[in-house]
Design a protein that fits this description.
single chain; 279 residues; alpha/beta; three-stranded mixed beta sheet; 17% strand; elongated; binds zinc ion
């Protein structure tokens, strides 16, 4: 029997695998991103390879594709006029922060519903009334809070049977987060736009829930160190399933599958400052 361990440098001799009579036993070894490793030391090698691949992704955040600017959309719909747009852009520029939509609302030039609708046109996805569908509370524990907050998103609804995950954003869609969710849960994601106030309130409610363990580690940025730490936690928690993905500023390792999940988040610093995702 060939060595079924995914570590090409696995030291276990061939006769060891023959002695297993053709099948790996349940509860033995650890699966990492769908690949099986016979031991923690083989897992560590595998984790290093995965991280070598993922870390550059966290540094090279995708530039948002060109979209019709929000101000222009509102202008073309007749919601605002040229004078108001200029005033809002000036205020935004002088202050050096804030989304254009917020400035337009502050100036009394557009309502939250108008901004939400324009964002849904800008991002070509539907508006989802998060405030009317509290099912986001049921799937709030799937994703660590720091990731929900960094991506400014809430999971609106999850259908494990069809493998569909509906994700609500209020500032525009974070494609890095969607990709991470798809890899983490082997699912298809559908993005939608929620009102800013509804998302803010949803995140507040999510913060008040009890959550699976989430540990944020700031000081590590090297694949060797992160792989070592992931394996240490895998050993402590006696898990036989680990998934590692890159999501925005984090490497997110989820241990324990769906039975008893816990998350390790490695915040990766030293990347170029991003202006957000297309506000
Ligand atoms: Zn091995």
């Amino acid at each position: 029997m060939a060595n079924p361990c995914s570590n090409p440098e696995c030291r276990r001799p061939r006769r060891f695998w023959r002695s297993l009579a053709g099948s790996r036993k349940d509860g033995q070894g650890v699966e990492l991103n769908g690949q099986w490793y016979c031991s923690l030391s083989c897992l560590e090698g595998g984790a290093r390879r995965v991280l070598n691949h993922l870390l550059p992704e966290t540094h090279a955040r995708q530039q948002p594709r060109h979209r019709v600017p929000l101000g222009l959309l509102l202008l073309s719909k007749g919601v605002i006029d040229d004078h108001t747009l200029r005033a809002a852009l000036n205020a935004q520029q002088e202050c050096g922060q804030g989304r254009l939509g917020d400035w337009l609302r502050r100036l009394g030039a557009a309502t939250e519903d108008q901004i939400t609708k324009a964002l849904s046109v800008q991002w070509s996805c539907p508006v989802f009334p998060l405030e009317k569908h509290p099912r986001f509370l049921e799937c709030a524990g799937l994703v660590p809070l720091p990731i929900l907050e960094a991506a400014r998103m809430a999971l609106a609804h999850y259908q494990p049977k069809s493998g569909s995950l509906y994700v609500a954003f209020a500032d525009g869609i974070d494609h890095s987060a969607l990709r991470a969710l798809e890899q983490m849960f082997d699912c298809r994601t559908e993005a939608c736009i929620a009102r800013e106030s509804a998302l803010r309130q949803a995140l507040q409610q999510i913060r008040n829930l009890s959550r699976p363990p989430e540990i944020v580690i700031d000081r590590l940025g090297d694949p060797v160190e992160i792989a070592h730490e992931v394996c240490r936690y895998a050993e402590d928690s006696k898990t036989n399933e680990v998934r590692v993905v890159s999501c925005d500023d984090y490497i997110w390792a989820r241990l324990g599958g769906n039975d008893k999940p816990s998350s390790l988040l490695f915040r990766i610093t030293g990347r170029p400052v991003s202006s957000g995702h297309g506000r």
